[in-house]
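Fold this: RluA family pseudouridine synthase
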Amino acid sequence: MYYKSIKPLIIDESDDYIFINKPPFISTLADRNDTVTILSLVKDYNDDYQICHRLDKETSGVLLIAKNAEAYRNASIQFEHRQVDKTYHAIVDGLHQFKDEIVDLPLHTTASGYVKISHRQGKNAKTIFNTIESYKKHSLVACKPETGRMHQIRVHLASLKASITADETYGGNPLFLSAIKRNYHAAKETEEQSIIKRFALHAKSLILTDLHGEKISAEAPYPKDFEVAIKQLRKNS
């Protein structure tokens, strides 16, 4: 889908901040392969506005934009000091009953951009996981990263043998209807497509403190592909 403005993506707005619901398949920052990014849309909207953090291209969900330099600095300090409360939802392969499951494993980004657990080279990374729902062969998991390392949730879930569905980089499997629906057969001569065509990770909510010391928060509804995947998993459980 082609986006011309951040306007339809806005969830909430104050004097200093905008919360948007980032769609999947669009880069947050400048990308040499894409002319349209969240950054380009933000700058078209108002050149003074700044993006406070980033989400992977395939990840959907809540993203914070500062309207002025003071607001940007305020958010940056909170991100740096781990004072921003972030919750992601992930559909993962397998049945898991996580209850405040803590993964505290250091992560190292290799030259190719692949992230691996490394006690020797890695930077500390911590995530807490809780199962929200279980289906037939999958689970919906709430993920709270306390640090903000690249691919952190994806790698930490893979370490629990709970790779994010359709995250082939870190061991996830495509979500085929034939695998969850009884007596379902794809049409002959056609290759079955995964219900969700990206890794199933969504930034659900964000809570921080504004310039007046008040808590501000936003929650991002699931995009259509994530919603459809959940619907099919519930229906075929």
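The two ends are 31 Å apart (CA to CA). The chain has a mean pLDDT of 95.
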